[in-house]
Amino acid sequence: MEFRENKAIYLQIGDYVCEHILLGKWKSEDKVPSVRELAVSLEVNPNTVMRTYELLQNKNILSNKRGIGFFIAEDAIKQIKIYSKIQFMDEELPVFFRNLYLLDIGFDELEVRYQKFVKETFTNP
């Protein structure tokens, strides 16, 4: 995993975990990799992964079964979408809108590009 400098690593790991859940790679109520396993695979300190898991537990995305490990919450997808939407709207969308304005990109042009992106990225041939 390539980490960006402009965002805390534990938050980027949280994005990684959430993406795996949203893409269906990790299913509801499945056990997630242990703190140590994920730390080794991402080449980070286990304390960083633990901080991520605690954040996701506080957001009701993961649950901790003491002595067993962390599991994906039953309504994790819903919780991820709520959490991610707020984060996107507050942090990324203003920068995006600014660029649209500065580059004089209209919503019509944007819609065409968006539809092409969705078709090429998320539809199977």
Automatic annotation (TrEMBL):
Residues 7-75 form the HTH gntR-type domain. Keywords: DNA-binding, Transcription, Transcription regulation. It comes from the Bacteria. CDD domains: WHTH_GntR. This is GntR family transcriptional regulator. It comes from Pedobacter panaciterrae.
